[in-house]
Amino acid sequence: MHHMEKKLKVSKEIQSLIAERLPGHSLDAPFYLSPEIFDLDIREIFSKHWIHVAVEPDIPEPGDYVTVEIGLNSIVVVRDDDMAVRAYHNVCRHRGARLCSEHKGSVGNLVCPYHQWTYNIGGELIYAEHMGEKFDRSKHSLKSVHVENLAGLIFICLAEQPPQDFSVMRDAMAPYLLPHGLKDCKIAKQVDLIEEGNWKLTMENNRECYHCATNHPELTASLFEFGFGYQSAPGNAEQIAEFNRLAAERCGEWERGGLPSAEIERLDELVTGFRTQRLPLDRAGESQTLDGKVASGKLLGEFERADLGGLSFWTQPNSWHHFMSDHIVSFSVLPLSAERTLVRTKWLVHKDAREGIDYQLDNLTAVWNATNDQDKRLVELSQQGARSSAYQPGPYSPFTEGLVEKFCTWYIGRLSAGLAEQSAGSPVTMLRRID
């Protein structure tokens, strides 16, 4: 057993909350507040599932690396000499010092700053002074972490046996994503935002557009909120009918042109849940910008036309992405504590696009910088409400919050499966919190 773990039964109260979750309603307050449930989330969700952590353009060259924190674990994702993507625990095999302290960098080898034990980027220990002639370096390689690359989106899994259905997502999504040429992009901008709220509130907020019309003027300048669920009423029936007509027409056009667009929805039926759909955009119909026109004049992949709508891709438990003809916006969500969450946003353009000539950074980032700030406020208001003695789970809209319900159904299902596995096998252990 890891020295940072201790035997600790999941309390009866939490087991009951999981077993008795009211379908079609928001979660009970402890799911957003409890340090014990946060530890459970790290163990059963973030340590056992495929977690989106990076994109290929984070590490374009051999020796380029990024680090990511998942609970108490630090992982280094690095490009090796053969251009493959590898991932390791960011822990020296000597006395455990962290190897890479920066979020991003480039190395020839991974050198421990403490006693200079040195590992090549294949993870092998190649230098360890003063260890004697009988010391076997081959037994002290870095501990590897499972890594998968889906059309340039990088996922890691900390489990010994990762979920086997990543291939289902890959087979379905590669034809949708590959035409956008993510591997041939560069990161124009990265913004890390800390939300003072539970990670599940961040994800729930992302999975609906019920709040969009009144909270996201910049986003809804180009995004039709009708595409994400709406209740038809006399006041909007004409608009919804027109959107549905446009969506069917454009989707058929894109499909005939070899660009997959139809909805695939597998959010709550797979361990590695996901959903995708390509939808038309408003105004110029080209990109998620204030005027609906492309933000970059250098189109992605081999695209020759700009009006290709917006392809949305959601993954359980921690990411969403928007792929357009000219740029990609990629989001990953990482829990920091029961009431703090990191939202990491990356804007990607073609690697040959020139800032100030092909694109203006302010224009490229305007919509999602504004939207992220607005969502941060909404998540924090929800977190404050969950702390109140008056809070109780409220009903989701069957018209606009179906994907929120699918997220919560998936989440509760994965916790239940984890607890069942524990009770059938090894003693329940939980990560000890360090405040």
Automatic annotation (TrEMBL):
Domain Rieske residue range list: 51-156
Keywords: 2Fe-2S, Dioxygenase, Iron, Iron-sulfur, Metal-binding, Oxidoreductase
EC number per UniProt: 1.14.12.10
UniProt GO MF annotations: 2 iron, 2 sulfur cluster binding; benzoate 1,2-dioxygenase activity; iron ion binding
Top EC class for this record: oxidoreductase
Swiss-Prot/TrEMBL cofactor(s): Fe cation
Similarity remark: Belongs to the bacterial ring-hydroxylating dioxygenase alpha subunit family.
Name of the protein: Benzoate 1,2-dioxygenase
Organism: Collimonas arenae
